[in-house]
Amino acid sequence: MICEDQSETIDFLSRPASYTFMGPVERIDTHAAIVFLAGSYAYKLKRAVRYPYLDFSTVEKRRAACEAELQLNRRTAPDLYLEVRAVRQSPDGGLGFKEGRPVDWLVVMRRFPTQDLLSAMAERGELDALLMRDLADGIAAFHAGAELCRDGGAEAIRRVIDGNRTSMEQVADVLAWEQADALHDRSIALLRDLAPLLDRRAREGHVRHCHGDLHLGNICLWNGRPTLFDCLEFDPDMATIDVLYDLAFLLMDLWQRGCRVQASLLFNRYLDLADEDDGIAAIPLFLSIRAAVRAHVESAAAQAQEGNARAAKAGVARRYLEAALAFLEPDKPRLVAVGGLSGTGKSTLAAAIAPELGSAPGARWLRSDVLRKRLHGVSPESRLPREAYTAERSAQVYAELLARARRTLMDGRSVVVDAVFPRESERGALAALARETGVSFTGLWLEAPPDLLRERLALRMNDASDADSAVLERQLSYDLGDLADWHRLSAAGTAEEALSGALTILEGTP
């Protein structure tokens, strides 16, 4: 609901003469703000609106929101956020920045090219694996340092679910009432099951003052690095949430845009770095809630439009509501193992398989090389000394792989395990785990000529695997034993050929 007439301020900010800048002023409108792009800077004006979840109805409330926005966004983007500035009215009634009574407030930012928004990059197909890795690393580091809160478990999530329902009531002319009712009922039912987990995670420190509005449109490339900006500033309670609920907005956004490989890579890299695997069971609910938020926000935007523009926005809103329901559909987990000697492309194949298995954002990809680094307290790309690869240490890694796979399968999510698996006992343990958890198991064994494996290892860079030619030569002497229960797959061709072969095998097994 619009609460004040800001037309005079908007007109002032739309004129190039208002700035020390002679070019055109570009304008970007959202449901809660207007951004004016002038020269090297961006000036963000809060709209004088009130929604069930947001109140910018007075000048003072907008000033407080601007000051909070500056402070909070400097956590992740200190170079982008410069100051809070008043729009002032002089005694003669004119508007300016220097003298007079404040009539409104702005957040002043450095401007960046709109093509550097990750939402724009997604449209151009430019979200590559390295960018997803850097983004996951940045989010994990931000969450680790964010202010901790011991509250905000199941009851906080209940408030969001109920709030979504209230917001949908106000857009009943856009969203189907029956679907909104069904979504609320199913969300509450799942929340009851998850309540002990969510409350425990709150007690253990997984609820923090996060970004709160973490989607691709609020991430940009700045100095070559993915940078989070425009966090949720108007209500600290809404941004003090489970870190996986924060991440879920971005995962949902990627998934809905068709960037499913990227969503899987981000999800798995984040979990490889952060101690958050125990919250996997809550991911479907978190994704659904995030889609529901987008559904009512897009519906409100549709109500402000007319004709074709209204119809287009309403269509987007309905698709988000359908997605919110789909995210809650129960999944049938399965266990897939990708084995083979170093250089066969196990990790490349496992990464490609993961988004194809199960519900969003795909299977949990557990990689022995990454887990070994985590158990030693170093980043995945750090190299470990030779003593980290003793038989005893390797047994610990495989035992931990099994334990993590068991927990994830029990939480209802598919798992792809990626390791050499040279011993029959290790391969047999995976089959036994599948029987124990009541899921199907498929083992994929990759093979390629030794000279090709040597060539690939010589070219490998910036990877979690420390395997070199000496490691490969030892592996070539292994007695692999019986591989009859595993599907042999040629890895001598391209990664696309290996994936096609793997998917054919997976489609032919239950």
Description:
This protein has helices spanning 7-14, 59-73, 118-123, 129-145, 154-169, 177-203, 236-239, 243-256, 260-273, 283-303, 307-327, 346-353, 368-375, 391-410, 424-437, 450-459, 469-476, 495-507; strands at residues 26-29, 33-38, 41-46, 50-51, 54-55, 81-89, 95-96, 101-110, 207-209, 219-222, 225-228, 240-242, 334-340, 364-367, 415-418, 440-447, 487-490. The protein has 3 domains: 7-111, Phosphorylase Kinase, domain 1, CATH 3.30.200; 118-327, Aminoglycoside phosphotransferase (APH), C-terminal lobe (Aminoglycoside 3'-phosphotransferase, Chain: A, domain 2, Alpha-Beta Complex), CATH 3.90.1200.10; 334-507, 3-Layer(aba) Sandwich (Rossmann fold), CATH 3.40.50. By secondary structure, the chain is an alpha/beta fold.
Low-confidence parts lasting 5 or more residues at pLDDT below 50? none
What does the main sheet amount to? 6 strands, antiparallel
The percentage of residues in β strands lies in 15-25%
Rounded mean pLDDT is 94
Overall helicity? 40-55%
- CATH structural class of the largest domain: Alpha Beta
Distance between the termini: 52 Å
Tell how many strands the DSSP assignment holds.
17
Principal-axes geometry comes out as: elongated
**Helix-and-strand structural type:** alpha/beta
| CATH topology type of the largest domain | Aminoglycoside 3'-phosphotransferase, Chain: A, domain 2
What is the annotated CATH architecture of the largest domain? Alpha-Beta Complex
Number of domains: 3
At the fourth level of CATH, the homologous superfamily of the largest domain is Aminoglycoside phosphotransferase (APH), C-terminal lobe
Radius of gyration: 26 Å
